[in-house]
Design brief:
Low-confidence stretches: none
Mean pLDDT: 88
Radius of gyration: 23 Å
Number of helices: 6
Order of helices and strands: HEHHEHEEEHH
Helix content: 55-70%
Structural class: alpha+beta
Strand order of the largest sheet: 1-2-5-4-3
Strand content: 15-25%
Shape: flat
Largest sheet: 5 strands, mixed
Length: 220
């Protein structure tokens, strides 16, 4: 009897291990697809940057950063939405697993690049949030696009979603510093600090406006 129980336990452990391994393989494959989608979007922006550098005699893109959401962040977001931690739930319900951030020289470049990207016939716009025209309450500014892009594999074509953030150097500096300050451990963020950060965001906006005006003068 004990021998049978031991065999059953062993079989159960083996089945659980096989199931976990298969699930992890599916997850790893999906993350590889998202990495491919990031590369596709990055390539599109690099091509646009090269084209516009010839047209305007300068590069509209200052830098491109990308990130893949961590397992912990994905699980937390699925739990908040009341969804199971499955590959299907990730792909169907999360739009920001793959992220590309494009840091531009001027505000006008943000809209120039966004328009050029969305004109491409293999890019589909899913959602757009313009936090430049309508900043968040804390002063955050950026243009957010959720787009779908095809990736071509050996035997199939898949449509993947990517979150694209376009912002200026000033917007990116403010957002990076705000994140470091606000999420510093053991720090109580006061109303005075919130107000000061908002003032810094306004100064950042004013800087962008002045630099855009200077750019327009130079181009004329």
């Amino acid at each position: 009897m004990n021998e049978n129980n031991t065999k059953l336990k062993k079989q159960f452990v083996e089945e659980v291990f096989k199931w976990s391994k298969a699930r992890m393989q599916e997850y790893s494959k999906l993350m590889a697809y998202y990495r491919c989608a990031i590369m596709e979007v990055e390539t599109k922006f690099n091509v646009l940057n090269e084209e516009f550098s010839l047209q305007y005699d300068r590069n509209p893109i200052n830098g491109i950063k990308s990130r893949l959401k961590s397992i912990e962040s994905i699980k937390e977001k699925l739990e908040r939405k009341g969804l199971p931690y499955t590959v299907q739930a990730i792909e169907e319900n999360l739009n920001d697993v793959a992220g590309v951030r494009v840091v531009c020289s001027f505000t006008a470049d943000v809209y120039l690049l966004a328009e050029a990207l969305l004109k491409q016939d293999d890019i589909q716009l899913i959602e757009k949030k313009d936090y430049i025209a309508n900043p968040k309450e804390n002063g955050y500014r950026s243009l957010h696009l959720i787009v779908s892009v095809p990736i071509f594999l050996a035997h199939e074509k898949r449509i993947m979603k990517v979150e694209v953030q376009l912002r200026t150097i000033a917007m990116d500096s403010w957002a990076s510093l705000e994140h470091q300050l606000r999420y510093k451990k053991d720090l109580e963020f006061t109303e005075e600090m919130v107000s000061e950060l908002h003032r810094c965001a306004q100064l950042s906006s004013e800087l962008d406006e002045k630099m855009d005006a200077l750019r327009a003068q130079v181009q004329r």
